[in-house]
Amino acid sequence: SEAKAGRADLIFLIRFRHGCLLRNQRCILAYLYDRLLRIRALRWEYGSVLPSTVQFHMSAEEVEWFNRYKKSLATYMRSVGGEEGLDLTQDMKPPKSLYIEVRCLRDYGEFEIDDGTTILLKKNSQHFLPRWKCEQLIRQGVLEHILS
C-alpha cells in the first residue's frame, strides 16, 4: 500500500522479495519431484512392500503416493501379457542364462515351477532353477544366487 502511495524505493524490494519467493518455490518443487522419482525407483527395487526402515523416513503423503503408484503399476501389469499378466519388475538387467544356481537361505516349503514340478526349498539346499521364477525369492531373501 505504501508503494502504491508513492514510495518508489519499496518497489525494488517488493520485486526482489517476490523473485526470492519464486526461486524458493522452484527449489522446493524440484526437491519434492526428486523424492517422488526416488520413491518410484524403490518400487522397482524392493517390490510392492517397502522395508520398515525406508518407510520410516517417508511422510504420510509419500506413503500414500507410493501405494497409489503400486496399485497403478499392478493394474497395468495385469492388463498386459494375457491371463496371468506380465511382471515388469523381473529381469531388470538382461539375463546371461535362463537358469541359475541358487541356495536356499531358510526353510520355505514347496515351490512349484511352470512345468508342474514341485521342489522342496529347505535351508542350505541348492537348486538349478529358471531365473524368472526365483528372482522374487532372491529379493525376499529366501534364495541366494550362487555365482560360480
**CATH architectural name of the largest domain:** Up-down Bundle
Q: How many domains is the backbone divided into?
A: 2
The major pleated sheet works out as: 3 strands, antiparallel
- Helix share of residues? 40-55%
Total count of strands: 5
Q: For this structure, what is the CATH class of the largest domain?
A: Mainly Alpha
Approximate strand percentage: 5-15%
The largest sheet has its strands arranged as: 4-1-5
Uncertain regions: pLDDT < 50 for 5+ in a row? none
What is the CA-based Rg, rounded? 26 Å
Q: From the helix content, strand content and strand pairing, which structural class follows?
A: alpha+beta
Per DSSP, the total helix count is: 4
Provide the residue-averaged pLDDT: 87
Explain what this protein looks like in three dimensions.
It is elongated and about 85 Å long. It has two domains: 2-79, Methane Monooxygenase Hydroxylase, Chain G, domain 1 (Up-down Bundle); 99-145, 3-Layer(aba) Sandwich (Ribosomal Protein L9, domain 1). With 148 residues, it is of the alpha+beta class. It is built from four helices and five strands; from the N terminus they run αααββββαβ. The protein has helices at 9-46, 52-56, 60-79, 131-140, and strands at 99-104, 109-112, 118-121, 126-130, 143-145. The strands form two sheets. Strands 4-1-5 form a three-stranded antiparallel sheet, with helices on one face. Strands 2-3 form a two-stranded antiparallel sheet. Residues 96-147 form the DNA replication complex GINS protein PSF1 C-terminal domain. Keywords: DNA replication, Nucleus. Its main location: nucleus.
